Amino acid sequence: MSQFLKHMPAETPTIIHTEASRGWGGQEIRTLTECKWFRDQGFRCILMASDDSQISKAFKAEDIEVIPIEFKKSTQLGDFFRCYKWFKQLKPELVGAHSNIDTRVALAAAATAGVIRRVRYRHVSIPVKPSPWNHLIYRKSATAIITTANSITRELVENFSLTEGFAQTIPTGVADTSITDRVAARRQVLEILGLPESSVLITQVSVLRQWKGHRDLMKAFDSLASSNPDLHLVLVGGGPGMGYLPEFAAKLTSRERIHFVGHQEDPYPFFKAADVVTLASIGGEGVPQSALQCFACATPFVGTRVGGIPDITEDGVNGLLVTPESPDDLAAAVLKIISDPEMAATLGANARRTFDEIGSVEHMGERLRTFLGL
Predict the structure, then answer these.
(1) Share of residues in the chain with pLDDT > 70 (%)
(2) Which residue stretches of 41-139 are H helix?
(3) Using CA atoms, how far apart are residues 266 and 361, in angstroms rounded to an integer?
(4) Which CATH number is 163's domain given?
(5) Which of 44, 157, 253, 309 has the smallest CB count inside 10 Å?
(6) For 150-198, how does the pLDDT look when each residue is reduced to its tens digit (9 = 90+)?
(7) How many distinct helices (H) and strands (E) make up the chain?
(8) Are the CB atoms for 58 and 25 separated by under 8 Å?
(9) What is the pLDDT of residue 3?
(10) One domain for residues 136 and 217
(11) Is the residue at 162 inside a domain?
(12) pTM of this prediction?
């Protein structure tokens, strides 16, 4: 067993997270961000995940220990016993589970092994069926639930009749922008895109997947583009949508002004350079990390009334909210901002104040530590 682990002082408190997902997105980024913060506070953080998953690679790149567990439907029984043995050996202060399969396996193993703090994380605003199995997970296997949006918390409390304080909304904190000069960021992005200084940039930073609303956003952009020749749409992010969204864009009149730039390790220049940042999601959201990153950059924001987006966005104060799956509403909100520089500046300044109040990694970490009693 020790081949996977470093030598650590016996008194070092240990936190173990489990993840069955093989992909990479906000959920996995949240887990890594949380572990890095707790590591900086003197905790030992360990991930249990498939060795070929993207989250395992990201944890190893940060020199955080990874124990390979498959967490597949076909390996659940063996995974249970592997988790149980590790929990008995490591005696963690907390086990946190993030996806369906690892939650079933790891929280049951943690309960059997006597782990006191067993946390079910819920990152997305997709309803959880109140089945007997889920009642067991959310009321017995877990000793606490952490969500990333108030709507998720309310749904779980209602569906599972949870006692007050059992579930807590703690959105994912994000790093402050490392680029304070908007002019420099804009110059950098315009150079990457090969665009003139007169360009007006509408930007969305998100994984390219179905529920992020990219088709609605492109339709909205296409309706604005003909009467706004300087307008450009910048789509930042990788993911499955790279297989079909460029084809959708190619059918639009404005196709030459829609730019797919792929995944960016540092997205902040794109947030800073944008005239408007959007999040056109149609479902699935907690409090989005990309919205808080936009707020950190004091850039005007337009989001849909989905999941946790309204938790942090006050319509007309620090951003604009629109109906999901409504390209017309989205286009109108974008046009409102780019047509009114004074409004844009006010929205951006208020968004930055929101970030300062609730958006940092430190704010997230301290709330977690208090709620979990660590």
Answers:
(1) 98
(2) 54-61, 76-90, 100-102, 108-113, 132-136
(3) 16
(4) 3.40.50.2000
(5) 253
(6) 999 999 999 999 999 999 999 999 999 866 689 999 999 999 999 999 9
(7) 16, 13
(8) no
(9) 65
(10) no
(11) yes
(12) 0.90
